[in-house]
Amino acid sequence: MWSVPQSAARAVEIAAAPGTVHVRDSKDKAGAQLVFTDGSWAAFVPFAASR
Asked: Cβ(31)–Cβ(24) under 8 Å?
């Protein structure tokens, strides 16, 4: 299930699946998706938050 942000002005949607996390542009639902492994997502989130 995709998690939809409250403000979609500059947002992405995130969906967790077993072993992966999928990320897509909230304004282009049919467009490309990024797929992270659980470990890659766990490393990416604190990196992105620090920027």
From this structure: yes
Answer whether 37's CB lies under 8 Å from 25's CB. Answer: no
Strand partners for 13: 24
Half-sphere exposure of 25 (CA within 13 A, CB side): 7
Q: What stretch of H or E contains 41?
A: helix 38-49
CA distance 10 to 7: 8
Look at residue 26 in the predicted model and tell me its pLDDT. Answer: 84
Contact between 35 and 22 under an 8 Å Cβ cutoff? The reply is yes
Are 12 and 36 a contacting pair, CB within 8 Å? Answer: no
Place of tokens 């990024």: 34
pTM over 0.85: no
